[in-house]
Amino acid sequence: MAPDPRSGPGAAAPATTGREHGLVVGAAVAYGICGYLVLVIAARTLSTADNSHFLIFWGALFTCFGTLNGIASEATRAVRAGGSGTADGSAAPGASVVRVALLLGAALAAAVALTAPAWSRAVFGDEDAFPWSALLVTGLLLFTVHAGVVGIAAGRGRWATYSLLLGAEPLVRLALVVAVSLTARHTWGFAAAAALAAGFWLVLAVVGRPELGWRTRAAGLDARGLAGRMASACAAAAASAVLLVGFPVLVRISSSDAEVATAAPLVLAVSLCRAPLLVPLGIYQNVVITHVIVRGLGALKVPAGLVGAGTVVGFAGAWLIGPWCLRLVNPEYDVSGATLALLVLSAGLVCLLSLTGAACLALDHHHVSVAGWLVATLAILSVLLGPGDLTSRTVVALLAGPPLGVAVHLAGLRLAGRSVVRVSDRPTSP
Q1: What is the per-residue pLDDT across 330-342, written as a single tens digit (0 to 9) for each?
Q2: Using one digit for the tens of pLDDT, what is the confidence trace for 157-210?
Q3: Tens of pLDDT along 111-133?
Q4: Residue 410: CB partners within 8 Å, gap ≥ 6?
Q5: How far is CA 188 from the centre of its chain?
Q6: Cα radius of gyration (the chain)
Q7: CA-based end-to-end distance of the chain
Q8: How many angstroms separate the CA atoms of 237 and 226, rounded?
Q9: Which helix or strand (DSSP H or E) is residue 65 part of?
Q10: Most Cβ neighbours (<10 Å): which of 110, 141, 242, 416?
C-alpha cells in the first residue's frame, strides 16, 4: 500500500510560485523553439538521405537522454519527499545524489560502448558506425550529471536553476548547429553539436554556482537504495524514451533500406507534430511529479486539460496548413494534411501516457510505469513490423499504442491502492 502522497517533509511547501512557474514555462518554450530550429536547419542543409541518418542519430541520442531523465525524476522524488535539509542540501543524511547519478550513468555508458559492435551497424548503417557510437557515449556521459542536477533543483524547489539548466542547453545546441551549418555542413558535425550541448552544466560548474546542489543527499536512502530506485526510474524512462524520441530508431529497425532512405519527411513530420505538446510537457514533468506527491492523481487534471486543448488546436492547424509549413522547411518534403493531423492526435495520446507515467513515478510505483510504456512500445513496434506502407503503419501504430499504456498505468495504480488517488483540499499552484 502506497503512503499518502500528501505526507512527508517535502509536501509542506507549494511546488512553484507564479514567477517560478513562468520561468519553467519560458524554459519549455525555449526548448521547443530551439528543437524546431535544429531540425529545420538540418532538413534545409542536408540531403534527404543524410538527414535520415542524422534523424536516426538524433532519435538514438535523445532516447539515451530520455533514459537518463529517470535519474532526474527519481532525484526529484527522493529530494522532495525526503526534504532538502539545509540551504545547500548538505545536512540531510543519505547518499549523495550527484555521485550515485554519475556512477549509474557511467555504468550505462560503459554498457552502450561495450555492446555497440553488436547493434551500431544495424542502427547507424555499415559505414562509420564507430564515430556515431562514440558521439552517443560522449553525450550520454555529459547528460548524466545534467540529469542529476536538474532533478536536485526540482526536488529542492530551485526552479530558477532548473529553468536555467533546461533553457540554456537547447540554446547552446542551436548555436552549435548554426555554426556547423555555416561551416562543416556534415552529418557528423550536426551530431556532435547535438551531443556536446549536454555539457552546458560544465559552464555553470566553472563559474561556481552553488545552487547546483552538488552536496545534496537523499534523506533516508543509502547509495544502494538510491541507485536501485534510479535504475528503476531509468528503466521506466527508457521504455518511454523509445516511444517519445526514439521513433526514428523504431523506423530503422522495422523498415527496409529503401524506406529508410526516403523516410526523412515522415520522421521529421512526427517530430514536428509532437514538439509543441511533448517538449513543454517534458520540461514540466518534474513539476508534475512534485504536485502529484502533494495532491495525488488530482494534480493531473489541469495538465491533462491543457494537453486536450492543445491537441484540438494542433489537429485543426496541421490539417489546414501543415503540408504548407512542411514544404517551407524543405520543398521536397510532402506529407498530407490528414496524416499530419493524425500525428498531432497521436502526440496528444502520448502526452496523456507521459502524465500517467509521471504519476506512477511520483507515487513510487516504478514497475507500473515501466509496464505501461512497454505495452505501448511493443504495440507500436508490432504494427510497424506488419504489412502496409510506412506512412500507414506509422499512423496506426502511434494511435493504437499509447491508449493501451494509459490503461495499464491507471489499472496498476488502482490495484496498488486507493490511497494514491486521494486529493488534498489544500490549494497549490497549477
Answers
A1: 888 999 999 999 9
A2: 888 888 888 889 999 999 999 999 998 778 889 999 999 999 998 888 777 655
A3: 989 998 888 887 887 666 788 88
A4: 356
A5: 23
A6: 21
A7: 27
A8: 16
A9: helix 48-82
A10: 242
